[in-house]
Amino acid sequence: MRVNPATSSDGVSEQLFTLGEIPGVLWTPDGAAGTRALVLMGHGGGQHKKAPDIVDRARRFVAECGYAVVAVDVPGHGDRPTDERYDRIATENQARVAAGAEPAPLIAGFQALVARQTVPEWQAVLDAVQGLPHVGAGPVGYWGVSLGCGLGVPFVAAEPRVRAAVLGLGGALATAEVAARITVPVEFLLQWDDERVPRAQGLALFDALGSAEKTLHANTGGHGEMPAFELDSTLRFFARHLG
Amino acid sequence: MRVNPATSSDGVSEQLFTLGEIPGVLWTPDGAAGTRALVLMGHGGGQHKKAPDIVDRARRFVAECGYAVVAVDVPGHGDRPTDERYDRIATENQARVAAGAEPAPLIAGFQALVARQTVPEWQAVLDAVQGLPHVGAGPVGYWGVSLGCGLGVPFVAAEPRVRAAVLGLGGALATAEVAARITVPVEFLLQWDDERVPRAQGLALFDALGSAEKTLHANTGGHGEMPAFELDSTLRFFARHLG
């Protein structure tokens, strides 16, 4: 892992890094020393590791909870090169939708394909970041909605270091069987009028989660209209489960 | 209204009162003077105005937010006499359920009947309590689940002083049309494995609410197993909307 020098503002240090081909960013409290909880954040489709909503949440997790937060670019996103195979499939899917196909199963199938690559990538990122002395091997949380949910469900199911997860804005089509293997506490975010994820599919994904403790937060509004107070709730959820 | 002398513990004053035939209890901060927000709480079926979960919530609303809180006995509950008409209907309903009838429509019909009495009773309670100098005519919130939801939906729909409501553990059978007239922010609590309210009916009631801002909180577990952290969320919800 190659780690760039830190920049700092308002008590939060930010370090860009690359791990093999994966560009990432790590946020920690200024002057952090020793082991702490780590939150891995998965960004949305067409977004990247430093999208404004990722940065806003990351800075609050660091400033208010003292956590480390890491985000990396999904293949084909941010500072990563175009992936011809994924691009070809995405183009084919767009053509199918234009011809009248339902988008949800196509999106779910595509996310399941990409997850085969991102699950081991994100596990390698955890290995590397937890090897840093100011992060260490503390409890791990996961936060990701939309694409970050489609890729997050298989990641959380596969990775025993994850102790709690915030997921949402995703449906059950490709992930219900995988979701049943998740047993850690989950806060699941759903937009009641989501124009991209049918309501019944979002409810079915929440239902499919194997966790004994899971909470659904459903709010009025469309896919991109999650209310700001849900971030306050996320902070309290992680504080309960990651310390 | 006849108001008994206050007793006090941990900074919270409690005053029993009667308004006509209605026995009630008012909690306020010790030494309160002047206008403040008022939360009216509706208790559950078979419970009463000082049931432990009502008292616990009321004391936190007073101690942490400085609100006044009022709860009264529903007809046939607590310190009120047995109501022969309600008792007869309840006995008939029990016989129908024993003979194989679905309980949910019977419960909903019964609650709609009782609400014809409790809506004007609770409006009179607001009038009287807001006339006290240490309560005054501030913003009003409503909290009620189960029976407190069945009676609360028509009350919140009818009473313009209510600015925000916590409802839940109830279904849409008798109340969907009334719920559509509610326009204030609502936090709606649903137990995902509720053995008394079918999940689809709880979701339908949330869907029916006319509020532009409404949030569904669904948790694993049965009717009586709402997690303790939902009270923390309720406090923040009222703080956002009642100040």
Automatic annotation (TrEMBL), chains A, B:
Protein keywords: Hydrolase
GO terms, molecular function: carboxylic ester hydrolase activity
Record has Magnesium as a keyword: no
Keyword Hydrolase belongs to the record: yes
Superkingdom per UniProt: Bacteria
InterPro entries from the UniProt entry: AB_hydrolase_fold, FrsA_esterase
Family affiliation: Belongs to the AB hydrolase superfamily.
Protein name, per record: Dienelactone hydrolase
Naturally occurring in which organism (per UniProt): Micromonospora chersina
Lineage: Bacteria, Bacillati, Actinomycetota, Actinomycetes, Micromonosporales
